[in-house]
Amino acid sequence: MTTEKQFMKPIDNTSIVQQVIDRITFAIINKELVPGEKLPSEMDLAKNLGIGRNSVREAFKILIYFGILEVKRPDGTFVSKGFSEKMVDPLLYGIMLERANSINYVKEFRLSLDTIVFDMVIKKAGKKDLDTLRSRFNVLKSAVALKDINKINYADNRFHEVFYDAVRNPLISKTANFLYKLEFNARQDIIENLIIFNRLDELLSARKAILQALSDRDSTNVKEILTNNYLYDINFENKQI
Hints:
elongated; Arc Repressor Mutant, subunit A; 2 domains; two-stranded antiparallel ribbon
């Protein structure tokens, strides 16, 4: 006798689209649906749930947008097999809406996450990772010498990409890279002021400290290194507007 899956049972009429989303989500969590598995067609699922096809279609669209499901034409709709950057979009929207505190949320989250990342990179980074990090640091030095804001920010982002990717964990590395990109405008302002006040050496010193600690496999002063790396608390006296 075939056991009916929980997510295929009829549902009531309140918040139908959300209930379909919840059913599919819980089915994935409970392994009723597994990565790569094909879902029933919109028509078949609507019939089993006792609801209109449009509600199923809307739920599918939302889950596809967030990377939970994927469409493979002409085969149908499937559970995604891996982590997608789309999955962090709700976090982005939440931070954007919390304008007053968003940068503080990012700073706190980054320090917590980066502390974990630092320890993981020390354990996992190989010679190739460290060589690439040194190469990216040299590119950053060249950009600093040119005093070009956009080139410095781009090179700095590339430096940190190696740091995060060395974790060998796509969920952590993509989330960390996402947070770093979220700070783009704030970092542009900091770099501009470092140029104005002739203090770009502080940026290089902060990045060099990361490179040195990773090369030495030393996590002794990790929080101090990371806090200095963010450059948030630099005091620019007589700031030019």
